[in-house]
Amino acid sequence: MQAKKFYKSSQLGYELYKLMFLVHQLLMKFRIPYFITGGTLIGAVRHKGIIPWDDDVDISILEHDESKILNKNTKIVLSYVPAAVFPAIIFPAVFLNDVGSLVDFNDPKIIGAIIAIIIGYYSRNVIATILSGLISYWIMIFLL
With a threshold of 0.90, does the pTM exceed it? Predict the structure, then answer.
């Protein structure tokens, strides 16, 4: 698997292609049709790959297929994560470091995201969800 030349980092490009390959395998295993959207679709058409300055992949599935991969409790938890911050919580900002490699599980970003999801689930408050994740992340970065 060879990543194309990237302005951000060739390692990030490689990780994005690898991620897309793994997601494709998972979705095909469960017979879930998917399609690319947004910048990923533009990149596929215009650049014949990922846009050089892009740092994520945009994949969508039909709503009736969600139940094949997300159970009811997972959907409830995710419903408390604001749509505006959801992409940042889920992949690029949390699971990749500055050079595009996957971070360790004990990374403060992952712990902050987990705390935010737990607080969001119990508080049902968008502001509390965002603040708890940010504050826990900052405490781990600056005080510990």
Answer: no
